[in-house]
Amino acid sequence: MICHVVMWKFQPGTQAQQAQFFQGLRQLQGVIPSLVSCRVEENVGPGDYDAVLIARFHDLEGLEAYRTHPRHQEVSALCWAIRVGRASVDFVE
User: I want to staple 34 with a disulfide (CB 3.0 to 4.6 A). Which of 40, 47, 52, 62 is the partner?
Assistant: First the structure.
């Protein structure tokens, strides 16, 4: 199993767009066949990032299919417009 973790820092005043982005990410499960599970959480305390995605795939090919899927690309476009930072890591569980 591949675990894909992404953290974002967003521009101040973009809460409405963030909510739309998070909802779009959550709706990808069941739409993108290779996405086994998807969890999106907002930071509730002080920290360097505002939110995190934890997604699981059976293999790296599944992760790549997710990255290039048109629906994921569409949701990601909103994130590009409101983020100021991003960090990610992929690892084997």
Answer: 62
Q: In what order do the strands lie in the sheet with 83-92?
A: 37-42, 51-57, 2-10, 83-92
Q: pLDDT by residue (tens digit) across 13-61? A: 999 999 999 999 999 999 999 999 999 999 999 999 999 999 999 999 9
Q: Whole-model pTM above 0.85?
A: yes
In a domain, 19, yes or no: yes
The two structure tokens encoding residue 2 = 């591949």
* Residue 60 forms part of a structural domain: no
How many domains in the chain?
1
Query: How far apart (Å, rounded) are the C-alpha atoms in residues 30 and 21?
Result: 17
